[in-house]
Amino acid sequence: MEPLTRDEALGLLARAGFGRIVFSHHALPAIRPVNHILDGGSIVVRTHEGAALNALVRGAGDQGVVVAYEADEIDPATRTGWSVIATGYATAVTDPAELDRYRVLLRPWVGGRRDHAIRVRPVEVTAYRLVAPPAESRATPEA
Length: 143
Known about the structure:
alpha+beta; eight-stranded antiparallel sheet; 47% strand
């Protein structure tokens, strides 16, 4: 694994179509697959009215809630790819103009209404490029 810079990591997130958001729900970790966009260094996802994350963020105030966001692209055949984990604070997007903008820029992959948006401001970004192992470690052991 080769570590990547924050800028390289955010570049990969900008190209990625989806990822997983991790948050605390009833004192346990919860993970939801979502599609996202990167906007000004922040990760933006859309949610629906009854979403657990939506309720959590709404009740957190201006500081937001701690979340992690993970996206990756890994080819199991070649054992190559990348992985990015961004940890930071999630807040509700409440400005009507911003919400309208995100409705245009970010089309959810799942059905149903997604009238809310959440912005994750990454504080810590960890990323790795997975490079092919040396040929000798890929070889099948002889019987």
